[in-house]
Each structure stands twice: as C-alpha cells, then as structure tokens.
Amino acid sequence: MPEEFHRIRRLPPYVFAEVNAAKAKARAIGEDIIDLGMGNPDSPTPPHIVAKLIETVQDPRSHRYSTSKGIPGLRRALAGYYQPHLGSLEFSKQLLARARVAVAPGIGFGEHGDGHVRIALVENTHRLRQALRNVRMFLQQDNAGPAEADLTVAAQ
Length: 156
Description:
Elements: H1 15-28, E1 34-35, H2 47-57, H3 72-82, H4 88-99, E2 101-102, E3 104-105, E4 117-118, H5 125-141
Parallel strand pairs: 1-2
Antiparallel strand pairs: 3-4
C-alpha cells in the first residue's frame, strides 16, 4: 500500500465527518436525531421527478443559485445565537448535542461559509416542526432568542 502523502496529515479533520461521527455516537446511545443536514434518500427517485429534473436542468434560466433565504425567523434566531461567539462547526455540534438537530456547518462549504449553517428541509412536516421546537428550546435555554421567535414551517 502506498505511503500517505505527508501533507495529508497536516489537514484539519473533515467537517462533515466530524458531524457524522457525532450523529452516529448519539444514535448509538439511542438518541432520536432529526437530521436537517445533507439529506440521504432511502428509496429511488420517482420517474416523474427525474423527468422534471431533466427538463429543468436543460433550461438555461435554471443555471443560477436559488434566491431562497430560508425561514426568516429561524435564520435570525440562529445567527443571533452563534455569530457572536461560535463558529459554524462548534454551533452545529452544540445544536446536535443539546437540541438533537443536525445541520451542515457552513465552514464545510469553504472559508467564507463560517457565518452560516445549511439546513436541508428533507424531513416530513411533523419532524420539521419537532426540529423547530427543539431549536426554540435550545435558544431559550441560553436566553439567546425571543420566546416566541417566528420559527414556522408551512404545511405543504
């Protein structure tokens, strides 16, 4: 087996590997983790969705970033909590440990991502509402967010 390139040993741990290890550890002891991180399909994509994706990707107007900024109240509450004193990785670890909600730390997407976390709305509406309740309690524990922050998910 070839020897590992010496510079590899100097690299920091892979951010998403750290979050995945923390999720696995929590699940191993029976914790119910709501994963709003990257998303991971557990069944094949239905054919009508594949067809629509093909149609959409062939439209040049689709070749841009989304203009969606997420759930405004959730964004304000999370940013108000972690920006003053935590990086996105440490915040993501605390959210997982204390609220049982997994998100993707922004630092994993590059050096300018540290002021952000990625929240993938990949759970059903019930689980999303449960996640938002957990996040609200997490923020209230540290008096970081308003008691009635607008952390709402509209039913689809």
